[in-house]
Each structure stands twice: as C-alpha cells, then as structure tokens.
C-alpha cells in the first residue's frame, strides 16, 4: 500500500468520528507487516474523560484481533489547519507495541508529514524496562 493510500484510509475515517463535544474529528489507519490495516476514529463521551482517540481505537482493534508485534505504519488525519499531532497517551500506547513505527501525520486536505515514533516520543518508556 502506498503512503497516500494509507493516509486516505485515515481521512476516510473522519466520517465515522463521534466528536460532538470537541468537534475535532480524527481518523487513523494502522498498517501491519502482512498488509492488514486497522482503522479507527475518536469516540467521545458525555463523561469527557471516557473519550478514546482515533489511534488508540485502531490499536485496540488490532490487538483484539491478534495483531500486536507487526505494526509498521500509522496514518493519522484531522480536519485542522495544522498537522494532527498525536497526543501523548497515543504516542505511549503506540510505543508499547511498535517503537519503530513510522507515522504519517496529515492535516486538512490530506497533506502529510512522515516521522518516526521514536522522534515523537524520544527516550520512551516501554516494555523492555519491565520485562
Ligand atoms: N484526539 C485523537 O483522536 N487523537 C489524538 O492524538 C489527539 C486528540 C481526539 C480526542 C478528542 O476526541 C479530540 O481529538 C479533541 O481532543
């Protein structure tokens, strides 16, 4: 799959976002080594703290379907003028499973930048510290 195709999958997920409170839709598409793609969107809640981000939706879908050690790329898309930078919690959750993940981060219109997760979460705390 091309980078563009993965980013487009993340953009397509904006349509499923449930963000009535922030009105800030986010979509994600997580690609595994074998080509499987798990998508996600943010899902908010009237109890604000119960919201889940798009990236973590995608990770949880993947892990619950038996994928956990084969993530290669994630695309994250927003509808904002700036790139849709992943929050700290999502960086941490991604780092747990794929510290060498490549991140494609898009903004309104679909333009994107590519960054390694290790740059987004420098000196991250991961399972190696505990296992
Ligand atoms: N959001 C994500 O889905 N991913 C991020 O990495 C940043 C924030 C969502 C959470 C909330 O629904 C909305 O964006 C505003 O914070």
Structure description:
With about 130 residues, the protein is of the alpha+beta class. It has one domain: Cytidine Deaminase, domain 2, CATH 3.40.140.10. Helix content is about 25%, strand content about 25%. It has helices at about 5-10, 55-65, 90-95, 115-120, and strands at about 25-30, 35-40, 70-80, 100-105, 110-115. The chain has a five-stranded mixed sheet with strand order 2-1-3-4-5. The radius of gyration is 14 Å and the shape is globular. The relative contact order is 0.17. The model has no long low-confidence stretch (mean pLDDT about 100). Tetrahydrodeoxyuridine (THU) binds near residues 26, 42, 44, 53 and 54.
Short description:
With 131 residues, the protein is an alpha+beta fold. The chain has helices spanning 3-12, 54-64, 88-97, 117-120; strands at residues 26-32, 37-41, 71-78, 102-106, 112-116. The chain has 4 helices and 5 strands, in the order αββαβαββα.
